[in-house]
């Protein structure tokens, strides 16, 4: 039997267990991340005037990034025109960086708004941009409940940060 080494998942499992057992409200992870300068520690790649780009700590694929408004908001209809515009510009910029870095064959782009839609963090809306390659889906997620990441998050961060 082959072993799949994914040590970064333990942090996710432990944090999820702590969050379930805690009664007090946690600060927004996205608001906390944007407080400092862009760095691997907070995974922020780029900060704009109204929005920013951050890597997904638990990516679906290598290069999985998110675009968020700086403002803590969950209602898409209440974004300002300036926020919409900058988020759109950052999505295009992120796709150009991903294309140059990873040469994906396509992208999944979207939002999960609310619990019923599967939002993991529902109080601070965010777009996901997930690079895709022909044949990148296989039996591992279905049979083994495991995602295979071919590059460590630190290397992905360095590559994408350079493009911004």
Number of domains: 1
**Oligomeric status:** single chain
Overall CATH class: Alpha Beta
The number of helical segments is 5
Decide which structural class fits the backbone: alpha+beta
Question: What report would you give on this structure?
Answer:
By secondary structure, the chain is of the alpha+beta class. It has one domain (28-163): HIT-like (HIT family, subunit A). The chain is built from 5 helices and 5 strands; from the N terminus they run H-H-E-E-E-H-E-E-H-H. It has helices spanning 8-21, 29-33, 81-102, 139-144, 153-163; strands at residues 44-47, 51-55, 65-69, 106-110, 127-132. It is globular, with a radius of gyration of 16 Å.
Summarize the structure.
By secondary structure, the chain is α+β, with helices and mostly antiparallel strands. The protein is about 35% helix and about 15% strand.
């Amino acid at each position: 039997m082959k072993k799949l080494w994914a040590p970064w998942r333990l942090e996710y499992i432990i944090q999820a267990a702590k969050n379930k057992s805690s009664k007090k409200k946690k600060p927004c992870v996205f608001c906390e991340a944007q407080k400092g300068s862009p760095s691997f520690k907070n995974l922020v790649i780029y900060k704009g005037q109204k929005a920013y780009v951050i890597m997904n700590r638990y990516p679906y694929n290598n290069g999985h990034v998110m675009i968020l408004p700086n403002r803590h908001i969950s209602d898409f209809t209440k974004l300002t025109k300036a926020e919409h515009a900058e988020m759109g510009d950052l999505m295009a910029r992120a796709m150009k960086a991903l294309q140059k870095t990873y040469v994906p064959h396509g992208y999944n782009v979207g939002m999960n708004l609310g619990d019923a839609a599967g939002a993991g963090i529902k109080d601070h809306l965010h777009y996901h941009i997930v690079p895709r390659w022909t044949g990148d889906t296989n039996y591992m997620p279905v049979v083994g409940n495991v995602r295979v990441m071919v590059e460590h998050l630190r290397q992905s961060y360095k590559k994408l940060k350079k493009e911004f």
